[in-house]
User: Fold these one by one.
Assistant:
Number 1:
Amino acid sequence: MPEPTEQELRPIVQNTRDLCRELIKRPSVTPDDQGCQPMLAERLQTSGFTCEPMRCGDVDNLWARRGAEGPLFVLAGHTDVVPTGDLSAWTHPPFDAVVEGDLLYGRGAADMKGGVAAMITAAERFCKVHPDHRGSLAFLLTSDEEGPAVDGTAKVVERLSARDEHIDYCLLGEPSSAQVLGDTVRHGRRGSTGATLTVHGTQGHVAYPHLADNPVHKALAALNTLAGAQWDNGNEHFPATTFQISNIKAGTGATNVIPATLEVQFNLRFSTELTTRAIWQRTDEILASEGLQPDDYTINWQVSGEPFLTEPAALTDAAIAAIKDICGTDTTLDTGGGTSDGRFIAPTGAQLIELGPCNATIHQIDECVSVTDLGLLSATYENILSRMLL
Ligand SMILES: [Zn+2]
């Protein structure tokens, strides 16, 4: 397929821009959906989708499916946005959806109301032209991706699994692009786990150290070894795992008091060479090897997500070819960035990629997206659907 002409692209750009503006005007700060999902459900119903709201706690989720056969192709995303920050710092009010030149400004423009709007308009055109497409097309939307993400995508996936509804392919419209639209497609993400380590000691006078037990001194060697450890070498798709201390706290503020405890927070972003279990075990081993006995400390671990990877196959091929067709851009497959809701969907065995607008302004003051890119993105999504469901 050749790149779309300007004339072909114009209505796609306008339609996607208008929908994105409607979404931005609803100040849907996590987890408050502000009616975004009902508005989208109404449009999807018109295109033949069966819509099933799945509210969990104070989180709105929407599952909308068109067709009963496999394979099941899912377009996934979130309607919630992060807070605006200082309102007076914005050039245009963050929920006014002002268009200036080719840029549409607003909280969520890039992360990820632009992607959601492009997915909806792509599905609308695709279903109109190919009402009898093969397999099924579905939307999975949540209003809690930016928050705790407990009652969002994870819960929907749980419900789908419970009734044997299996996702074969998933396209997540998160802002994956770096410099130009389509230059980066994510086909996996690193895992993330972190801990609060509290090292116990005995408070005392610095002049009488024999009557105290300094937790800072006890922990120094272990912290140094943790920070310097080679956790793995990464692999073909992932960089080496990294360990970072983010907070460290001890002492009363007085110069003559040995503190009673030391508290350290750290995080690891890790590759598919490791699991959270392996990391936790190795951490305990390092602490022991540097003289910290189990009685000397408590450690509370948090898991944000295990790493996941979609090996290059049908879906990545379709995305790479579609981006070349529509945008004329060569794509890099990448596993960078933070975690995403892909971490809940990929473990079901689905092939999963993330493709969306440029991410330079996400979560920032003056978040914005190129209006032309919104149209190109929608055309690219439609092209991917044609490759996968015709
Ligand atoms: Zn996002």
Number 2:
Amino acid sequence: MSDKQVAIIGGGPAGLTAAHELTKHGIPGVVFEKDDVVGGISRTVERDGYRFDIGGHRFFTKVSEVEDLWHEMIGDDFITRPRLSRIYYDGKFFYYPLRAMNALRNLGIFEAGLCVLSYMKAKIFKRKSNESFEDYIVNNFGERLYKHFFKTYTEKVWGIPCTEIRAEWAAQRIQGLSLWSAVINAVFKPKGQGIKTLIEQFEYPVLGPGMMWEKFTAFVEAKGIPVHMETDVVKIHWEPGKVTGVTARHPDGTEKRYDATDVISTMPIQELIAKLDPPVSADVAKAGQGLKYRDFLTVALVVNEEHLFDDNWIYVHSPEVKLGRIQNFKNWSPALVPDPSKSCLGLEYFVFEGDELWNSKDEELIALGEKEMVKLGLIKENTVEKGYVVRIPKAYPTYDADYSSHITVLREFLDALPNLHPVGRNGMHKYNNQDHSMLTAMLAVRNIDGANFDVWEVNVEDEYHEAGASKSAFSEPSPEGSGNGHGDMAPEPDAEADEEAASG
Ligand SMILES: Cc1cc2nc3c(=O)[nH]c(=O)nc-3n(C[C@H](O)[C@H](O)[C@H](O)COP(=O)(O)OP(=O)(O)OC[C@H]3O[C@@H](n4cnc5c(N)ncnc54)[C@H](O)[C@@H]3O)c2cc1C
């Protein structure tokens, strides 16, 4: 048995994957999860037997190790679902990924022609600046397509103008998608024809993503790694050169110190910095406070209709309603809806913690959701039976103009504490999917066991995003620094498979 003892903060995908990896290395550990459910943002919420996601969580990865682990943990309860999603804009539904005839019909020949001209103009007179999301999209798609398919939705998601969002975000999330690839896809891969691509189907646990994380929890607990629920890590103890343990507040209010040789943190990096004991220098604290987040709330509506529409989800670009996306959970898995005569929808609102929507009463949000759905013509009046509201703070780490300078300061500080391992989405302030979180956690544990991965490099190097990059597992950097890097994995989902990005 190893002489190490690892404290893991968070029972989401990253924390539980870290615990799973510890079991493979024979390293003892303990997980602290402040909530009463596991899964973090990838949890499944259950109310009166209705199950729903925070958003909809597709299981999609190009990293074979992650995919194999999902299958190993969930076995036959992993179902393959057909994907159908559309964009609602200007009173019309556009299939997404685009279908040529549908797009032409909706835009009209004249407007489609203008889009092509504006694309050509953007290619000839490229903007000199490529700093902002707007620059990136206009340079790649032209002004008119930017206005039709990117601007309104992206601004709903982030709550800031596209001119203030860094181009890196677009590059990361929709890299590889060009106008031509979208058009070629629309023309040559109509629905139902040929190979089923990853775009047209995805995997999903039959009872929602939380089921995966419950299986992980049962597995690691059976192997001797306890998962303490409703247990908030309130301090991370450190001294120059290392962390020494954490203090956790248990559900009965008692605080207990746990010594650790290593701490893996998946809590938001901003909170990690604020909870370091003794407090960090003013510069480091300021960098932590400077990070921004977008928060999220979902209104789940139980609708008295057996079938509403075929989409798994619909992006709502139209600015006349506040909601940003609609999930139809029955189309993710019929088992999520206990009464087959009803449907359950998830209405997604992108908000800031403490803003008007966030502070609205649940009944007001349910009424707003119903009103907006009727306005969009997606449900009939008086068909909503009941609703539930779930608020998720810090759902999205924001890539604003200053975030990378803050991260530079924080990394410099954290690099001097090599036994503190920040991993995961908010843990590293990276706009990532589950597979990235899992991968960073796996690599951190391998580092604890003597490997030398640069976990920060996962998903930041351009080559990780390259279309068609190999699916094989990662490798450590070669000692000579020959550029082998961390490998050739490409965990970034296809541009078209992106779940949150501007859907154009
Ligand atoms: C709307 C939406 C849709 C998404 N769709 C997809 C999708 O389709 N596919 C996909 O793969 N990914 C999707 N994602 C991304 C996915 O949710 C995240 O990548 C993933 O959950 C990140 O895992 P994590 O463990 O890094 O962090 P989290 O899920 O944030 O987990 C962190 C955990 O740490 C706990 N914690 C925090 N502070 C403390 C503390 N002080 N003490 C103890 N515990 C603490 C939290 O309670 C939480 O459980 C989506 C995200 C959103 C917001």
